[in-house]
Amino acid sequence: MTDHPPGSGNQPEEPTPQPEGGSAGTPPAGVPPQAPQPDSPYARPQSQSQSPYAPRSEPQQPFASPQGQQSQAAQQAEGQQSYAAQGAQPHMTQEFAHTPWPSAGGHTAVAPQQPHKRRGGLVAGVAALALVCGLVGGGVGGYVGYQFGGAQAPGVTSLDESRPARSVSTAPAGSVQQVADKVLPSVVQLQLVTARGGGEGSGIVLSGDGYILTNNHVVAGGGSGGRLTAQFQDGRSARAQVIGTDPKSDLAVVKADITGLTPAELGRSDDLPVGAPVVAIGSPFGLSGTVTSGIISAKDRPVRAGGESGGEDTVLNALQTDAAINPGNSGGPLVDMDGNVVGINSAIYSPGNGQGQAGSVGLGFAIPVDQARRIATELKEKGTATQTTLGVLIGAGDQPGALVRNVVPGGPAEQAGIRSGDLITKVDARSIQDPDSLVAAVRSHAPGDRVKITIGGSGGERTVDATLAGQG
């Protein structure tokens, strides 16, 4: 509550100016005393306002003489004396006690002033009039209260209202809700317990009999005495075993001892445009079934999934998204608005000194599904996967690009005429800014793909064709 300074707040109004020759509450000599009237907007003296019920062409008659012989001047004088007697009142005290009501003639009807000797008849008349005014006042009061207080009765709150009918509407097509309804049954929470500790992440159901795709770093150690458990959206859980892992692509396939699962639908990532809306689903910080949404922020982003201490083996050719991805989302799906998987969430950007557990800053990275599909198929069938290679050892130079330090004998690079000291600046139309860019670009292809390699440097620019090879 705000305190009011002295002199503020509800202060009495200035007294009503009094007629000359008299004071408030004391009528001049020779004039009979009048009963004070409440300061009601419905009972104003003629000198102040007209009755709302009287025609504008006729003056209001606030005090009608019983015999109808009193002159208008006398009536006005009597009204002014009565108004002066009551004084100024800042608030109405009895709002409807003396509320006027239109008579048959259109003028305001008020009980006539009778001498005290006719008290008996006057009491009966006043009683009847009071009953009518009470009913009228109640109706007018109800109307005014409705206008100022709304349709609800006094004291009624939102808590008193009945619950609405249960919503039976379906999710709009292409909405995040519809995507979540479709994909959630195909998302798994994975928990790993080993002798050195434990960890958790997410996975994607590949088949009804328990094959699950996830990240290698989620299940690393699960095949050497660790206990891996899969928790499903329908509340069931089952032990799982590692079928195959590929650290270079950070992908793994595990098999849960369960049936009756709902496999996810895999989409494609090669034609996914930047700015396309996407949804990420997983178990961040152990909160299973968490749904977040965003867009594809960038494509072909070279990312070291293992951080700065990681080597070439952890470089990803990633999709970048601003959908919230946190620890525990790893291995879960990134899906388009048709509910098709377009990426496997794998890494997040973590600014700062690395102390404590990282969280989302709107920079998440996912393995494109086109690459993940090929690797997962090999892991499921053979337990291992082949990586695409150009057959060179590279490093950083003093110019943008990847500097060739050595060429593998008989490899794709040697066959294409690439030599040590060459600076690779493009793979097809993709610009190469550093060694990680070249690794990501090559691994985005499958073994056997033919690509154009642009070589720059002091010797000028040239282009060669190379057929990429596979390496286990």
TrEMBL record:
<dbReference type="InterPro" id="IPR009003">
    <property type="entry name" value="Peptidase_S1_PA"/>
</dbReference>
<dbReference type="GO" id="GO:0004252">
    <property type="term" value="F:serine-type endopeptidase activity"/>
</dbReference>
<feature type="domain" description="PDZ">
    <location>
        <begin position="374"/>
        <end position="434"/>
    </location>
</feature>
<dbReference type="InterPro" id="IPR043504">
    <property type="entry name" value="Peptidase_S1_PA_chymotrypsin"/>
</dbReference>
<feature type="compositionally biased region" description="Low complexity">
    <location>
        <begin position="59"/>
        <end position="89"/>
    </location>
</feature>
<dbReference type="Pfam" id="PF13365">
    <property type="entry name" value="Trypsin_2"/>
</dbReference>
<keyword id="KW-0812">Transmembrane</keyword>
<dbReference type="Pfam" id="PF13180">
    <property type="entry name" value="PDZ_2"/>
</dbReference>
<keyword id="KW-0645">Protease</keyword>
<protein>
    <submittedName>
        <fullName>Serine protease PepD</fullName>
    </submittedName>
</protein>
<keyword id="KW-0378">Hydrolase</keyword>
<dbReference type="GO" id="GO:0006508">
    <property type="term" value="P:proteolysis"/>
</dbReference>
<keyword id="KW-0472">Membrane</keyword>
<feature type="region of interest" description="Disordered">
    <location>
        <begin position="1"/>
        <end position="116"/>
    </location>
</feature>
<dbReference type="InterPro" id="IPR036034">
    <property type="entry name" value="PDZ_sf"/>
</dbReference>
<keyword id="KW-1133">Transmembrane helix</keyword>
<dbReference type="InterPro" id="IPR001940">
    <property type="entry name" value="Peptidase_S1C"/>
</dbReference>
<dbReference type="InterPro" id="IPR051201">
    <property type="entry name" value="Chloro_Bact_Ser_Proteases"/>
</dbReference>
<dbReference type="InterPro" id="IPR001478">
    <property type="entry name" value="PDZ"/>
</dbReference>
<comment type="similarity">
    <text>Belongs to the peptidase S1C family.</text>
</comment>
<feature type="compositionally biased region" description="Pro residues">
    <location>
        <begin position="29"/>
        <end position="39"/>
    </location>
</feature>
<feature type="transmembrane region" description="Helical">
    <location>
        <begin position="122"/>
        <end position="146"/>
    </location>
</feature>
